[in-house]
Amino acid sequence: FIKAFEDPIKKETKFSKDDEDLHRVWWMAHFHCARLYGKIRSDIPAERIAHMRKSLDTYRWLRKYHDENGIKNIDAEIEVVDGMIEVLPGRLDMWGSAAKRGKPLPDV
Q: How many whole angstroms separate alpha carbon 35 and alpha carbon 55?
């Protein structure tokens, strides 16, 4: 289901630097995809870890895109992005360790 939303907003899409509104809307669509990936639950640990990894990768991409293009009016979202970039690697390590030991992944 997420693929249907993500397909029209490919990361490779190029916009004119002058179209700030389009950059912001497009950036926000990716932000919401990152949040959605982080909320997908699965009983299969490998799937859940893969979704969380996809979420982290997207947050990192969002930060890089913002730094390169200076998207305006997303201060609150950038705080979330930075927070997730800081927190998710530790969560992925914890989940990876739990999965290797055959333990269920904790809900955090």
A: 7
